[in-house]
Amino acid sequence: MYSSMKLFACAFIFAQLLGTIHCSSYDTTDNWVISDKTYNFPENAVLGGIDSDGYYSYVGRTDYASSVLPARVRAETGYATFNNDSLGKRAPYYELLVSNATLTYHWVRSYDGFREKHAVSVGTTVQDERVYVCRAKTDGGIFIGTLYLSKRLCFIRDESFPLRQFSKYEVLVRKVTPIHRAAINI
Ligand SMILES: *[C@@H]1O[C@H](CO)[C@@H](O)[C@H](O)[C@H]1NC(C)=O
Ligand SMILES: *[C@@H]1O[C@H](CO)[C@@H](O)[C@H](O)[C@H]1NC(C)=O
């Protein structure tokens, strides 16, 4: 039911002799669904923030320059943006993270690239580093951003704003509730 749009994003690294193929990979631990404005917006998409125009922003992912990166997605328009540690752009395609009865998502406070238990990874960079989903308050909203543990910073660059970097931020983590406990909680 849940299929990944693309399992790998590959690039030739010409700097290396023999032109080795370098691939980043999409993480398959969580459920991500292909989406765009021609699909119904999934009810169980994961809310991440609110942008400065007052639109809710949902957790998505896309790839750019052979790295898989978190994306910010507006439900109303399907408009999606992303950033890495330097640039911010519009995402031409993306997947949305969805929860289910036993798998839910939460934001926890974190700092300095600390490796939180059960943090959600979108996939890897071309250097094979896992990329995590963070968020912070800035520019009149709460923005989903890109967390590289090695850089110890959450990077946020929404299209119209300058690059922001946070050493204190929130990280998206998953919570698995066993089915019998889920039933008791209802
Ligand atoms: C971010 O994108 C720029 C432009 O493609 C690239 O030069 C830079 O290496 C990227 N950063 C990371 C951490 O991949
Ligand atoms: C929720 O998604 C996870 C991961 O794909 C899966 O293992 C689990 O069975 C799903 N739970 C339900 C209730 O569908």
CA radius of gyration:
16 Å
Percentage beta strand: over 45%
Low-confidence runs (pLDDT<50, min 5 residues)? 1-6, 12-19
Termini separation: 25 Å
What is the count of β-strands?
16
The oligomeric status of these chains comes to single chain
Written as H for each helix and E for each strand, in order along the chain, the element string is EEEEEEEEEEEEEEEEH
Signal peptide: 1-23
Keywords: Signal
InterPro entries: DM9_repeat
Task: Summarize this entry quickly.
The protein has 186 residues and is mainly beta. 4% of the residues lie in helices and 51% in strands.
Question: What do you see in this structure?
Answer:
By secondary structure, the chain is mainly β. It has one domain (8-185). The protein is 4% helix and 51% strand. It has 1 helix and 16 strands. It has one helix spanning 179-185, and strands at residues 8-12, 21-25, 31-35, 47-50, 56-64, 67-74, 80-83, 88-90, 94-98, 103-111, 121-124, 130-138, 141-148, 153-156, 164-166, 168-176. The strands form 3 sheets. Strands 3, 4, 5, 6, 7, 8 and 9 form a 7-stranded antiparallel beta sheet that branches. Strands 10, 11, 12, 13, 14, 15 and 16 form a 7-stranded antiparallel beta sheet that branches. The two termini are 25 Å apart. 37% of the residues are buried. Mean pLDDT is 88; it is low at 1-6 and 12-19.
